[in-house]
What we know:
Layout: H1 13-16, E1 26-31, H2 40-49, E2 76-83, H3 108-117, H4 133-137, E3 223-230, H5 239-243, E4 249-251, E5 257-259, H6 270-273, E6 280-281, E7 288-289, H7 295-298, H8 305-309, E8 315-319, H9 320-336, E9 343-345, E10 358-362, H10 382-405
Parallel strand pairs: 1-10
Antiparallel strand pairs: 1-8, 2-3, 4-5, 6-7, 9-10
Amino acid sequence: MAGPNSLYGPLDPAPDAGYLDPPPRMGFFTDTSVCIGCKACEVACKEWNLVPDDGFNLLGTSYDNTGGLTANSWRHVAFIEQPVAGRGGGTDTPGAFAGLPVGPPASGLAAVTAARTGQDTGTDPGVPPAVDALAAAGTITPPGALAPPGTPASTGTPASPGALTPPGALASPGTLGPLGSAAPAGAPASSGGGGAAATGPQFLGMPMADLPGRTIDAPRSDFRWLMMSNVCKHCTHAGCLDVCPTGALFRTEFGTVVVQEDICNGCGYCIPACPYGVIDQRKDDGRAWKCTLCYDRIGDGLTPACAKACPTESIQYGELEELRGRAAHRLEKLQEQGVTEARLYGHDPEDGVGGDGAFFLLLDEPEVYGLPPDPIVTTRDLKAMWKRAGVAALTMAAAVVVSFAGRRP
Length: 409
């Protein structure tokens, strides 16, 4: 059951595959501008789909540890360390980062150090003093806790000898609560053990940790990180599906492409047919594997595991047409903010694969991310190939006729 555009061009793949009343086509929109490289998507994909591990070693050339999409990596988070010309220290730096703070000068180091190690005077509330977190934590009573019988009462000053708190006694008004704040009337008494109580709000973070923008003479780096969570594109015209001789690859009612591992015979025809180099064979059994867009989950109305786990919503799942509109709006917003290099990839139904079911917002050329700039499904040229083959066959036949017709009996 093939339509006029089954080989190339815009197409609704589910009806073309024979579904009479399919649901809306579903897909992914991956916004790389908010990807933080956490790899939550990779882990969630492996956990849900029981994908085996592919090693626990770094590549040696990147913080990436997978390198690309394989039969054992259905999601791949790329870490791209990209030099940026013209970016240096100072507030007069040209480009999108011009005017942003670069940290205090060297003369500010002494003030920062003093603010951390000296008494908190409140002159620089953004830089807390150094705190012995363990000692401070020992002076804090958890909310709702009651002092045990016989424990010296803590009222913000060292307890006097023999001052015991009766069982179940409550602190008086003005008693210091957690982190030195005043406890409300009727709050349980603190079991400070006679030690000095906190005298004000205390910062219990990492002592002496440099705060953002407060490093000494910090220049802007001359590189930037580009991160992208790559995945199978679930093409409108899927080359892998077209060449599969066993029917192991099939089109779902959601327009996605899924491999049935129990039918795959390991022939490997699908591997070179994919213009993105996504699908791959496992070395142990030879069968082909790739992302299924969590067909089992979306069939039950659930979000795919990778999108569910993404903490920044870089990976967005939904109806493909709605995602395309959302992506166009996001692109417009970024370009208005000066990110002129932002672009969409795989969203155009007129491209070489008829548009992707999983498309991306990129911050540079596709080649930077290891993506082909103009992917083309092989069936796009099938009509022209058959025409050329027909012309060649007719030419050869005519030549044979002429050669025999010229002979005498």
